[in-house]
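Schema walk-through. Below, the input block comes first and the output block second. Nothing else is stored per chain. Lengths vary across the set, and this one has 111 residues.
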Amino acid sequence: MKREAAPKIIPDTAYMKPLTVIHPVYYSGFGLSQCPQCGSKDIFWDGWTATGARDVHGVRREERALGYQLRCKPCRATYGKGGPREKEKGSCFATTNKFFWEKWEHWRIPR
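--- output ---
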């Protein structure tokens, strides 16, 4: 149908969920730049999450969230490969993961 000279395409409306991008550039004053596990500020931002955006339940609507990953250097030394507690916890956290927000009070979460 799209290859016809005069296609008969009738536009229709589509519902797109709002997308929230959780990146340190947009939320620089909210304290995202620390490890959610140990609270260390010795971290580095590692890139977008490998799985892409994820569906989340917002307070007023359904949303999608796209997050960024951070790696904690002290946690990597402790819980990373070859560390003394290698099997227990991780050292890489995504801003869209519930573990990242677990210790936050609800009024501190940025909107």
